[in-house]
Amino acid sequence: MTLQEQKTVAGEDGGHWLAVRPRLILASGFMLFLELALIRWTGSNIVHLSYFTNFVLLGSFLGIGLGFLRVGRARRQPYYSPVILFGLVFIVLTFPVTVDRNTEGVLYWTSLSTTGPPAWLILPVIFGAAALVLMGPAELVGRCFPELPRLEAYRYDLIGSLSGIALFTALSFLSAPPVFWGLIAAIAYGVLLVPRPRVIYLGLVTVPSLAVVGLLLAETLTAGAFWSPYYKVTYKQFLQLGVPVTDISVNGIPHQQAVPAAARLQWERQYGLPYERASTPPKDVLIVGAGSGTDVAIALSKGAAHVDAVEIDPKLRELGGSLHPDRPYDDPRVTTHVTDGRAFLERTGDKYDLILFALPDSLTLVSGASSLRLESYLFTEEAMRAARAHLKPTGTFSMYNYYRESWLVDRLASTMQNAFGHKPCVDVVSTAGQQAVITAGATPAAQRCAGEWAGAAAGTPPPTGDDRPFLYLKDGDIPSLYLITLGLILAVSLIAVRVVAGPYRRMRPYADLFLLGVAFLLLETKSVTGFALLFGTTWVVNAIVFAGVLVAVLAAVEITRRFRTPPLPVMYAVLFGGLLLAWLVPNTWLLSLPLPLRAVAAVTVAFLPIFAANVVFAKRFSDSADATTSFGANLLGAMVGGCLEYLALVIGYKGLLIVAAVLYLGAFLLLPRKAAVT
């Protein structure tokens, strides 16, 4: 940034009543909080937006990068941000939408009905709005950078980001509805944006911010709607053939029903088949996906002496406890566990007569840091081996669902065959929706099949594994839908950078920082997914991992600020060594360790390359001539990394380490000569 540009920024922000350091912390915390809130809220109201799992995240990265690049080129405060936020909230609440799910190569797990504007219209609106909304707080953060030394500004930026994560995590823990998110956004805009001139401030900040709060309050007060850490949950109660039924939807998707056990067994045969296929009546039962309690009630009606009910969502568990007609969770024979199903299997030492995966639905398809993958690791071959290890000698493992495609039934049956060493029982209860039950005994004698399964049909994809846990992806490539979408995102981003930041040559000196951003996002994705496997795909684990990444980055910055660190070539060598270690250490070995030791080993393996990468970035960033442009280039690189994340569909999560290593090598080769010796 030139001296004149710095004076321009200082001249406008210098009159702010809040000192630069607390203002930087507040702006950075607000930026991350708003990003998380947008990801969470849009995914819950734009039905099936979660199928494009990091769509809003990519828009946020673009906006944050553009906000930094805009510093020095814009004289006015970013009053546009609250106005666009109001427009986004108004559009989403006025035009609830679904995206096109009839797409070759992608299996969608819910209703095929569509509502609202077409996908080609609404998705660009959401992407663009998310970018423009986040560009405002990012610009406010960027305006603080020229007033402080490089690493000190970055330090306070990271402290603010940690504060934003902590606040959003606390609200998730309290199941706070979106009106509280809107209130926090309104307060942050009011504090951070300078009220000059007052008429513009009132019209562009106060009015739209209060309007957002009003819209979110109206949504919050909707009858039968509440928020869990994962979903917007709605329910309605009615009588069906004289039987009380509670119909539960999450994020606008029909999810499950709380129905008396007797009625459910009468209406749908699949619910009783796991007990018919067991060689002996099961007494000790584990149910993964217990939800509102119908499957638990059925197990009790079948004579279970003890049921471990595992449900990832605490609010669904609470709803079942208060509304299920049979009150299964009040039964002393039932113990509930609010956690991830795969994590429970890895931790428990108990043995069971029956382990049941009861309709664990898929609400996401491919992985991204923006969205939880509720069953990504539940249906891999390793998961089924873990289930087998917890069966008694005469125990059985069973799963049922509406699988929608015959190849998916065959894929799961093949996975079970590989894990158990013999053919399972396969009961296709209804070809409409491929309603099926797949059951395998600990031994062939422990299962009672109605007939022998014929085996997987030709063309059935192989079983999934922990490295590529994409059950619903039939072919081993990236579906054309995602390639087209990502290509359009990159094209729009290129145009937006040129319009906002001017000629690309402005960022040319920071090409290595751009590549560092690309590689780091891939490294972060590998860490998040790895911890999800090792410790559970819960919102708590995800929050801890994201916070841990920021703590590792902050530690790297503090060490670089306070101590003399080795030259960049040495730090790159440490980085490549950390990547090699992460490649060599298998997840199977980590999973075999006791939980405390597993945590220590996993943190060491995951955070060594993250720490080294950020020492590299901190050293390089501290010597950059233009703080905001170099930082913006790094953030835009992170957006490109979010696009490259989809390579995991083809090469697996472990393969992302190789891609990251190549990118880091490119960054090293692009180092300016002066930086290479410091």
TrEMBL record:
Q: One short Pfam family name for this protein?
A: Spermine_synth
Q: Does the keyword Protein transport apply?
A: no
Domain of life the protein comes from: Bacteria
What keywords are annotated for this sequence in UniProt? Membrane, Polyamine biosynthesis, Transmembrane, Transmembrane helix
Q: What is this protein called?
A: Spermidine synthase
Question: Does the keyword Ribonucleoprotein feature in the UniProt annotation?
Answer: no
Transmembrane region(s): 24-43, 49-72, 79-99, 119-141, 153-173, 179-195, 202-227, 481-501, 513-533, 539-557, 569-585, 597-617, 629-649, 655-672
Instruction: Tell me the organism.
Output: Nonomuraea guangzhouensis
